[in-house]
Amino acid sequence: MHCPQALRFGRFHMAASAAASDGSETILNASSKSNSRNSTKSCTRLQYSSMCWWLVAVSALLVALALPPSVCGLPEGGGSYPVGKFPFLMPKVVPYKPELYLCTPVKVDYTKSYYIVGFEPNATMATAHHMLLYGCGQPGSESAVWNCGEMAGGSEESGSPCGSGASSQIIYAWARDAPKLELPEGVGFKVGKESPIQYIVLQVHYAHIDKFKDGTTYDDSGIFIHYTTKPLSKQAGVILLGTAGIIPPMATEHMETLCDIPEDKVIHPFAYRTHTHSLGRVVSGYRIRKNETGADEWTLLGKRDPLTPQMFYPVENREPIRKNDRLAARCTMESNRTRVTRIGATNEDEMCNFYLMYYVENDEPLNMKYCFSNGPPLFRWSETELNHIPDYDASHL
């Protein structure tokens, strides 16, 4: 397959191969340099030279072409379709400073539709603070690996995970040694042909780098993507609720967000995930629907201590979400710091995230992928028209 000129140091695409003996399709990973056993050990920092990147990419390509495709069996849940396994891993990088965000892309074969049905993490919280998989129209850089920040990008010299102006959505998130995730039977994230997801970008936030300081240890954190080429009628999607804002010193603060569902779709929620840094105590998410009298009815979607494994958990209520419903989330933060804490990318900052995973049947997922508020002190549920706010339940397990 023709390689984009911009990504000239490797073939960043999922190339469909012949079917395996068990009938399952496979994908060759020609972009994941983590498969290389002989990558040059002189690349000890992110700022590789052109020649060094060339050596890494060529060695990866040779190994990828020589290795047999990786294939797994049917989904553990008893699925009725063959499933392949695609190793999407960091290409033996050496993170050189704490709190570093790195991204690496893979281009999806645009001639075929793939459906992602599971995610198997290859990481430990001793190294990675978190990992995200972005579905992008274009990657945020032409490099094989680049500095990238969470959601809105990092510092000036950093590139975002997805390209400016390109479609962008989060399709999976991992943290705190969460286990693998298999989607419900018949549900999958559509990528490739006739999908806005033409690239998948892996982002890893490195929390601890001590073991990399000698320059001889490499990292291949990432995710084994489980996929099928069988068309699935239930397309998965994720909407991320989050906030900006500040947490005062020595205080308990509620960081809240609220958004309307403006699209005429029937959304079936099935999983949720919470994420904060060290100050989070409870994160809760709700669907809000007005009854005939104008009263808000709050239906709990999920509530967790965010310092437990940050995996996707089954929602508390799978009743469909419809047009004109609202989604709301709250993070209860407790600070014993003598300084103000702001939303930011490092572990000294904070985040307030509630991920809702859902599917639509015989339809396309929501165009709305993100729902963010300004957070405190500029935005609070109590200062909106909301009524019957479950103030105690939203902040207590």
Task: Compile the SSE list and pairings.
Elements: E1 14-16, E2 27-29, H1 50-66, E3 84-89, E4 100-107, E5 113-122, E6 128-136, E7 146-147, E8 168-175, E9 181-182, E10 187-192, E11 199-206, E12 222-228, E13 234-243, E14 246-247, E15 252-260, E16 268-275, E17 280-290, E18 296-304, E19 313-314, E20 326-334, E21 341-342, E22 353-361, E23 370-373
Parallel strand pairs: 10-13, 13-23
Antiparallel strand pairs: 1-2, 3-12, 4-7, 4-11, 5-9, 5-10, 5-12, 6-8, 6-11, 13-22, 14-21, 15-20, 16-19, 16-22, 17-18, 17-20
Portion in helices: under 10%
Portion of residues in beta strands equals 35-45%
Give the count of helical stretches: 1
What is the 3D shape? globular
| Mean pLDDT score | 79
Distance between the termini: 52 Å
Q: Which secondary-structure class do the elements indicate?
A: mainly beta
Q: Measured on Cα atoms, how large is the radius of gyration?
A: 21 Å
- CATH architecture group name of the largest domain: Sandwich
DSSP strand count? 23
InterPro entries: Cu2_ascorb_mOase-like_C, Cu2_ascorb_mOase_CS-2, Cu2_ascorb_mOase_N, Cu2_ascorb_mOase_N_sf, Cu2_monoox_C, PHM/PAL, PHM/PNGase_F_dom_sf
Protein name: peptidylglycine monooxygenase
Cofactor: Cu(2+)
Organism: Anopheles stephensi (Indo-Pakistan malaria mosquito)
